[in-house]
Amino acid sequence: MINNKQKYTQIIKAEAKRLGFLSCGISKAGFLEEDAPRLEKWLNQNHHGKMDYMTDYFDKRLDPTLLVPDSKSVISLLLNYYPPDFQNADSYKISKYAYGKDYHSVLKKKLKKLLRAIRTEIGDVSGRAFMDFAPVMEKSWAAKSGLGWIGKNANLITQKTGSFYFIAELILDLELEYDNPTTDHCGSCTACIDACPTEAIVAPYVVDGSKCISYYTIELKENIPQEMKGKLDDWMFGCDVCQDVCPWNRFSKAHSEPLFTPYPELLSYSKKDWEEITEETFAKVFTNSPLKRTKLEGLKRNIKFLKY
């Protein structure tokens, strides 16, 4: 006989699949005991650089019950963004997650639909949706719920589909059936550590965020340090090196989300096109693109650093 917890879990996972999520795993909400000392050490070693927001809400990052009162379950969801096509070879490089529309708006709509479906099917459920701008240890929760393991490059990795996906959560005051973590399948591989152009992976499973190309090209608002000259490998916005070399990403498959369809210009532009792009063209072509995060001014700064 199916009990309510089983029934509700089946409803949620079926709806997540219907909405196009790659996978859905569920964990019991509570304090992330193992993550607390790791996070504290990471912050104390200044691996967050100028990302001061990482020091905010320390307790809430580790305990979802402080974010959602009476929460019982953390539902972790993966949404594939691996593109069907790639940039022109003669171009400044852009991280694959930024090829299409801004993922925040895409994820937000899907999470709202999932929450609405849960309330329609199950009843008066209290909860909130979260993604990467919230103080939630999303990779830890996804690993805890069996969706993958956290690899040596600090990304969540799955055997079937690699690591090119977004992670989001619903935190609910509803008891559900909980999934078990999977095992680590990195083995003795050090491909990501060996390939990182700036040696940002300072130890297996530890990334110094302040040395990452994504940090320099997106997060850092001041000038890129001169000692990084010649090390950014033509990355203009973000970096995918540690994912591109990961053997598990041989199994990545193109997404089926129309809103992540790459901007044609983004794929076809040469270095010269990027160097000559105007504010007007940028605003018109890249409406609702993740590239707007750095604005054209930030991209120009990055290009100048790469070029000269």
From TrEMBL:
<keyword id="KW-0671">Queuosine biosynthesis</keyword>
<keyword id="KW-0408">Iron</keyword>
<feature type="domain" description="4Fe-4S ferredoxin-type">
    <location>
        <begin position="174"/>
        <end position="206"/>
    </location>
</feature>
<keyword id="KW-0004">4Fe-4S</keyword>
<keyword id="KW-0846">Cobalamin</keyword>
<feature type="binding site">
    <location>
        <position position="189"/>
    </location>
    <ligand>
        <name>[4Fe-4S] cluster 1</name>
    </ligand>
</feature>
<dbReference type="InterPro" id="IPR017896">
    <property type="entry name" value="4Fe4S_Fe-S-bd"/>
</dbReference>
<feature type="binding site">
    <location>
        <position position="214"/>
    </location>
    <ligand>
        <name>cob(II)alamin</name>
    </ligand>
</feature>
<feature type="binding site">
    <location>
        <position position="239"/>
    </location>
    <ligand>
        <name>[4Fe-4S] cluster 2</name>
    </ligand>
</feature>
<dbReference type="GO" id="GO:0052693">
    <property type="term" value="F:epoxyqueuosine reductase activity"/>
</dbReference>
<comment type="pathway">
    <text>tRNA modification; tRNA-queuosine biosynthesis.</text>
</comment>
<feature type="binding site">
    <location>
        <position position="61"/>
    </location>
    <ligand>
        <name>cob(II)alamin</name>
    </ligand>
</feature>
<protein>
    <recommendedName>
        <fullName>Epoxyqueuosine reductase</fullName>
        <ecNumber>1.17.99.6</ecNumber>
    </recommendedName>
</protein>
<feature type="binding site">
    <location>
        <position position="186"/>
    </location>
    <ligand>
        <name>[4Fe-4S] cluster 1</name>
    </ligand>
</feature>
<dbReference type="Pfam" id="PF13484">
    <property type="entry name" value="Fer4_16"/>
</dbReference>
<feature type="binding site">
    <location>
        <position position="132"/>
    </location>
    <ligand>
        <name>cob(II)alamin</name>
    </ligand>
</feature>
<feature type="binding site">
    <location>
        <position position="153"/>
    </location>
    <ligand>
        <name>cob(II)alamin</name>
    </ligand>
</feature>
<feature type="binding site">
    <location>
        <position position="192"/>
    </location>
    <ligand>
        <name>[4Fe-4S] cluster 1</name>
    </ligand>
</feature>
<keyword id="KW-0963">Cytoplasm</keyword>
<keyword id="KW-0819">tRNA processing</keyword>
<dbReference type="InterPro" id="IPR013542">
    <property type="entry name" value="QueG_DUF1730"/>
</dbReference>
<feature type="binding site">
    <location>
        <begin position="239"/>
        <end position="240"/>
    </location>
    <ligand>
        <name>cob(II)alamin</name>
    </ligand>
</feature>
<feature type="active site" description="Proton donor">
    <location>
        <position position="132"/>
    </location>
</feature>
<feature type="binding site">
    <location>
        <position position="221"/>
    </location>
    <ligand>
        <name>tRNA</name>
    </ligand>
</feature>
<keyword id="KW-0479">Metal-binding</keyword>
<keyword id="KW-0411">Iron-sulfur</keyword>
<comment type="similarity">
    <text>Belongs to the QueG family.</text>
</comment>
<dbReference type="Pfam" id="PF08331">
    <property type="entry name" value="QueG_DUF1730"/>
</dbReference>
<comment type="function">
    <text>Catalyzes the conversion of epoxyqueuosine (oQ) to queuosine (Q), which is a hypermodified base found in the wobble positions of tRNA(Asp), tRNA(Asn), tRNA(His) and tRNA(Tyr).</text>
</comment>
<comment type="subunit">
    <text>Monomer.</text>
</comment>
<feature type="binding site">
    <location>
        <position position="212"/>
    </location>
    <ligand>
        <name>[4Fe-4S] cluster 2</name>
    </ligand>
</feature>
<dbReference type="InterPro" id="IPR017900">
    <property type="entry name" value="4Fe4S_Fe_S_CS"/>
</dbReference>
<feature type="binding site">
    <location>
        <position position="167"/>
    </location>
    <ligand>
        <name>cob(II)alamin</name>
    </ligand>
</feature>
<dbReference type="InterPro" id="IPR004453">
    <property type="entry name" value="QueG"/>
</dbReference>
<feature type="binding site">
    <location>
        <position position="156"/>
    </location>
    <ligand>
        <name>cob(II)alamin</name>
    </ligand>
</feature>
<feature type="binding site">
    <location>
        <position position="246"/>
    </location>
    <ligand>
        <name>[4Fe-4S] cluster 1</name>
    </ligand>
</feature>
<feature type="binding site">
    <location>
        <position position="196"/>
    </location>
    <ligand>
        <name>[4Fe-4S] cluster 2</name>
    </ligand>
</feature>
<feature type="binding site">
    <location>
        <position position="242"/>
    </location>
    <ligand>
        <name>[4Fe-4S] cluster 2</name>
    </ligand>
</feature>
<keyword id="KW-0560">Oxidoreductase</keyword>
<keyword id="KW-0170">Cobalt</keyword>
